[in-house]
């Protein structure tokens, strides 16, 4: 019976960490940013959202979303915008070809799982909305390319648009009021510069900071320094960063990454009331990166911080010993060093000793304040999978 | 014998804490700033430098300066500039009137003492150079007014120019290359708004940060946000602040004070490499001030931070209980509560209890990180004194 058929499609989608930060909306409704941004997509073996989208006339309930076993509210404007836009594209397909099954109006049932602890405070909404949009697009067999889909994912969560691509990804702010030219594009695939690695230091925050949506709106409204960042600094840095990626120029990549992270947090501090995402542990990570670069005589490590105290440290594979190895020696046993790549990584005690002299206070703060590490690198965009989180009866698959 | 006569003059000079910050030099040689600034002069009973200037043909040594019992190097360009300019003014007096003793070329012997611990990390160079210039001007019986002298003190230490006046003091950046129009002026005397109080929380820093001279030059050279602060934000805030002082409008005074401190520290963070003066204890002080203002339903307390982690909290006398009293209850026994005014101040445990609920982490950080407090308020400019630190034989007076 066609009515009870369960339509299913699944994908995984990656996390991305910006090196030119998105902060500030010129239009909250369409999630249109005040400036362009650029990110590195991280490997899904370490960080990903796995999502199955399904629809069926047999589903008794309206649209639903289960994330890590928890029912989520899908009535919010952002999720609704994604559903509406994807259904509208499916509707067009159905209208243009009568042989296409009419499924655009059926209830959607979506099941999602992250392979990383939610408590880590890693921005999961980018991977989440990218997976949601990609999974439904697969379900609906849409022909739209990732750039088209990025316009939709952007309405779910701004930075989600960048997670529809692998490698090095830009998000152009666009000029149109309807957001039609505000989409993501691939600057270079992961294969262009596959040596890029990222060490994430998960810092236990005393309490959750200001949410990024609230924070960025307050920054736009109150920071007197913000306009010069959005209008002058970022446009210049976007060009510098795209060139650095094209030329695989880590020194420029690293310097601009650090400067842009600092610029973003500076506008947070210039917000009224001020927003602080960096704490003394974050500052300690900065200090150690500075010591590593000083010892190397050039930039081989670059820190960046999103809207929280976690440090993400980019470096090239050839410097793994000098960067990740030193951090392993410095901060000692932590969850995360134990997994695959981490086990193979030797603690670089010799390099650590030389840095420790001038950064002992920082090292002590890191030892105490870092709760876990994630050792990862540049990776691919969303990957279609036949491993579904919903079974043939339309029920969420029970975990073993 | 005239040759052995000891000429002596003494003064005290105050510390000032800016509410519109000086950060950035447009000319390092003349100490010319990139933006105007405005400060409150603090009471000398709590914080002052006491300086005696003397000269005599009998002095065997060249110019010398003894500060808190330690010989200081006077060969630096800044001290030399002050000596040179003051001698030149004295020379003019001598040239114009032959009855004036010819002392401009005699060796100078200067003895200075601060009434506050150097270890407190309070910017003492402002009071120090103001006292040095004022004492020598007294010694030379110069007719120049404080504005004229502020041009000289500025060359010793930028913010010293503001310590030549009491009350509320502006320093106009000026436009001339020679610095002739870069001087301090009184916005209003202390008597205009004598209710202004200041609570200083001295925070023990793990180590000394970047010096302000080095720091501000790096900011000017590398911060992309700095020009908009210097060219747009500060000129607007100078007008707002002068008006707030004239109208005794604490809410505007407080809001602009906090925003300008944040703006200054934002440009430090936007410097490459970034400069951090605020630490987690500083942030905790900000949090408690925000809680106090939230409880009051208006701005009754305003934080500001110079190039270090110490918090200065301005408030009006009428709110001493709600502000200083709350801090006394929150951070407990510390050096500084014991002196005169501090003893009279009751710990406001009731107000503290209500704030503690939402700011317990901040309060714990303050308890641990504040090493001493100074309870003071707006005060007078330099005061001439007959209490000399050099005796009739030209020797430093031994302390009892």
From TrEMBL, chains A, B:
Originating species: Lophiotrema nucula
EC number of this enzyme: 4.1.1.33
Domain (Mvd1 C-terminal): residue spans on this chain: 198-383
Pathway: Isoprenoid biosynthesis; isopentenyl diphosphate biosynthesis via mevalonate pathway; isopentenyl diphosphate from (R)-mevalonate: step 3/3
Family: Belongs to the diphosphomevalonate decarboxylase family.
Superkingdom of source: Eukaryota
GO biological processes: isopentenyl diphosphate biosynthetic process, mevalonate pathway; sterol biosynthetic process
Name used for this protein in its record: Diphosphomevalonate decarboxylase
Alphabetized Pfam families for the sequence: MDD_C, MVD-like_N
């Amino acid at each position: 019976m066609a009515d009870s058929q369960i339509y299913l499609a699944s994908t995984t989608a990656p996390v991305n960490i910006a090196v030119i930060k998105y902060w500030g909306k010129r239009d909250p409704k369409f999630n249109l940013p005040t400036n362009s941004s650029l990110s590195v997509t991280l490997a899904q073996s370490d960080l990903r959202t796995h999502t199955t989208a399904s629809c069926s006339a047999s589903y008794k309930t309206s649209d639903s979303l289960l994330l890590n076993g928890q029912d989520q509210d899908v009535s919010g404007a952002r999720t609704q915008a994604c559903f509406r836009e994807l259904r509208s594209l499916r509707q067009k397909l159905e209208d243009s070809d009568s042989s296409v099954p009419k499924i655009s109006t059926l209830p959607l049932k979506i099941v999602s799982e992250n392979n990383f602890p939610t408590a880590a405070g890693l921005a999961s909404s980018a991977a989440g909305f990218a997976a949601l949009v990609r999974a439904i697009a697969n379900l609906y067999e849409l022909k739209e390319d990732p750039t088209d889909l990025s316009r939709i994912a952007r309405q779910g969560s701004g930075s989600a648009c960048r997670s529809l691509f692998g490698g090095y990804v830009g998000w152009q702010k666009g000029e149109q009021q309807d957001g039609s030219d505000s989409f993501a594009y691939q600057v270079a695939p992961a294969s262009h510069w596959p040596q890029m690695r990222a060490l994430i230091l998960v810092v236990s925050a005393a309490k959750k900071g200001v949410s990024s949506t609230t924070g960025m709106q307050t920054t736009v409204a109150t920071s007197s320094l913000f306009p010069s960042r959005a209008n002058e600094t970022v446009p210049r840095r976007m060009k510098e960063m795209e060139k650095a990626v094209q030329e695989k120029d880590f020194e420029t990549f690293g310097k601009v990454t650090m400067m842009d992270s600092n610029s973003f947090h500076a506008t947070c501090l210039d917000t009224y009331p001020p927003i602080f995402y960096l704490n003394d542990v974050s500052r300690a990570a900065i200090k150690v990166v500075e010591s590593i670069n000083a010892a190397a005589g050039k930039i081989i490590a670059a820190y960046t911080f999103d809207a929280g105290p976690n440090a993400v440290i980019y470096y090239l594979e050839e410097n793994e010993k000098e960067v990740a190895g030193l951090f392993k020696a410095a901060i000692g046993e932590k969850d995360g060093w134990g997994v695959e790549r981490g086990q193979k990584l030797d603690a670089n005690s010799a390099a650590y000793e030389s840095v420790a002299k001038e950064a002992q206070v920082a090292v002590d703060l890191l030892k105490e304040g870092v709760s876990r590490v994630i050792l990862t690198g540049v990776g691919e965009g969303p990957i279609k999978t036949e491993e579904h989180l919903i079974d043939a009866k339309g029920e969420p698959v029970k975990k073993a």
